Amino acid sequence: MNRARTIVLTVILWAVAAAPARADITAFIGPNFTPANRLTSGLAVGFGLVIVGFEFEFANTTDDPPQGAPTLKTGMGNVLLQSPVPIFGVQPYVTTGAGLSREELGAVSDTSIAFNTGGGVKIDLAGPLRLRVDYRVFKLGNNALHSPAHRVYVGLNLKF
Fold first, then answer.
1. What is the mean pLDDT of residues 32-41?
2. Rounded to 5 degrees, what angle do the CA atoms 58, 152, 143 make?
3. What top-level class would CATH report for the domain 20-159?
């Protein structure tokens, strides 16, 4: 009984002493390189506890029919491991996640489960405003026209 009480008290103290959750939102733009350079834009919303964060993002990549490059829409849920505080104003992170993707090129389309892995940095600018630079590799479904897809983006990040 003493051991159970100690465990319960430890968990309660840990929960009370934990850093408050922090949230952020990022509007981003950048190129998708697969199979040709095309514009990607999107929005990510996340929250984190010390070094573990969670993020939901939506991105849309334009098509380039002459290059055989489809539109690509992704909706992902991600887990981030990040430094607990910025190091010289830079907070590095790595991320992985899963969600849905949809490729469309002319009459051909594919909707499937997709996975992504990547990383990046959040750079302090002024107050709660940060610059975010991110690289991701997306493993799309078996019937995808082009997989894996590679994306880089730059975005404005607001933490609150």
1. 97
2. 60
3. mainly beta
**Domain boundaries of the chain, sorted by first residue:** 20-159
Is the pLDDT higher at 24 or at 15?
A: 24
Rounded to whole angstroms, the Cα distance separating 63 from 138 reads 17
Q: What percent of the chain has pLDDT over 70?
A: 92
**Beta strand pairing status for 38-49 and 129-139?**
unpaired
pLDDT at 1: 59
pLDDT digits (tens, 9 = 90+) for 58-100: 999 999 999 999 999 999 999 999 999 899 999 999 999 999 9
Tokens of 76: 């992902």
Partners of 38 in the β-ladder: 32
DSSP codes, the chain: -HHHHHHHHHHHHHHHHSPPPEEEEEEEEEEE-SSS-EEEEEEEEEEEETTEEEEEEEEEE--BGGGTBPEEEEEEEEEEEE-SS-BTTEEEEEEEEEEEEEEEETTEEEEEEEEEEEEEEEEEEETTEEEEEEEEEEE--TT-SS-SEEEEEEEEEEE-
Whats the size of the chain, residue-wise?
Answer: 160
